[in-house]
Amino acid sequence: MTDTTSTGGQADGSAEEAPPGGIHWRKATLIGLHPQSWHSRTLALDVPGWTGHLPGQHVDLRLTAADGYSAQRSYSLAEPAASSRVAVTVDLLPHGEVSPYLVESMELGDELDVRGPIGGWFVWEPGDPSIGGGPVLLIAGGSGVVPLVTMLRARKRAGDSTPTMLVYSLRGPRDLMYGPELEELSADLSAPGSAEVRLVYTRKIPYGHPRPASHLAIEDIEPPSAWPEPLAVRVYVCGSSGFVDHATRLLHKAGYPDDRIRTERFGPTGADR
Amino acid sequence: MSSDYSPPATPHGGADSGAVLDGNAAAGDFAGILASDPTTVMVRCGSCGATQAFGQLSAYLGGPGTVLRCRRCEAMVARVARTPRGTWLDLSGSSSWLFLPTPGPA
Ligand SMILES: Cc1cc2nc3c(=O)[nH]c(=O)nc-3n(C[C@H](O)[C@H](O)[C@H](O)COP(=O)(O)OP(=O)(O)OC[C@H]3O[C@@H](n4cnc5c(N)ncnc54)[C@H](O)[C@@H]3O)c2cc1C
Ligand SMILES: [Zn+2]
């Protein structure tokens, strides 16, 4: 864009105004902390004025230091909508700028800015007519499991019985997020809201796990025998960019057309988280 | 802010530069401008004519602006840059944006 004629608008860099019906930064207070694995935790925030969200959407969080420097990152909504409560689950990147602060330093009562909910594309609401009777395949790498678990929670809450399988790739037992919840979800596959869960360990398996450690392979995304058809009508893939690229290649090999696949890339590197 | 968040030695705004993400990741930037959820908008690439959801485009964050590229031909279809003079929205790489009616909140 080379046009230099001023056309008015905000040229002074002042605070963003809230566009009507759009999203804008809101003040939030940390009201809950729950560990999820050795290096991740769920942060629950109270966000006055929050008007709800859909499973799969995300928020932007902004932290501002005393000198005014600020950093912002995106985090998937970790719980289905419930009044002004907004939760995120953050995995620690050891040399990261923002995640160590969220996972290790923040304390109850701390404040930060939240913008959202964002995105209606990477979303699965129970009863979505474009999904119909399913089946639905969810593929997670590392913390990419967060929005997919939110989808599973919303589905369970709604008593939805669309055949669903979660394939969750992670490095080792210490990296497992939502372990007890996933076990319960897959314990009785005839219960409403239940889902088949396949854990794909890439480096280290827990004692007795039937699958040896290796990267996600085409067998891991083969349909469970109970599925009415071999291909899911919708696939959600979430994780690092490397993981999502890898999973997308496997899906193409398995015969999935692009219009059945929805992806969310969290960051640049790593095939297994 | 009341917490003790301290900045790093070399501040860089936004997410890591050079990372290729999905349009979803850029949606916060565009939603602040478009006043509605951009991720479900069907965008037609001005170079190759492919139509894809905004959420499917390749997103490049962390540079001087947020850039969206066509997943098929890699051409730039949209860009947002925030400068002291104001916010630039450059859609010259796209030939159309179809806003579908959305059901629930977005
Ligand atoms: C739409 C969206 C939703 C997201 N949801 C979640 C979520 O629910 N939970 C969550 O924990 N994270 C999520 N992320 C990732 C998150 O936004 C941050 O990128 C992450 O927390 C790292 O930030 P950081 O400041 O700690 O690291 P940075 O300082 O940004 O990066 C530190 C180093 O790690 C590398 N890096 C950055 N991201 C990743 C990654 N994902 N994997 C491997 N290496 C990386 C960088 O290249 C850099 O070298 C999401 C990202 C997007 C775009
Ligand atoms: Zn193109």
From TrEMBL, chain A:
GO molecular function, one term: oxidoreductase activity
Positions of the UniProt region annotated as Disordered: 1-21
Record bears the keyword Metal-binding: yes
Domain of life, per lineage: Bacteria
Xref: Pfam families: FAD_binding_6 (PF00970), NAD_binding_1 (PF00175)
Domain FAD-binding FR-type: 23-124
Keyword terms of this UniProt record: 2Fe-2S, Iron, Iron-sulfur, Metal-binding
Cofactor: FAD
Cell membrane recorded as keyword: no
Protein known as: Flavodoxin reductases (Ferredoxin-NADPH reductases) family 1
Organism: Nonomuraea gerenzanensis
Lineage: Bacteria, Bacillati, Actinomycetota, Actinomycetes, Streptosporangiales
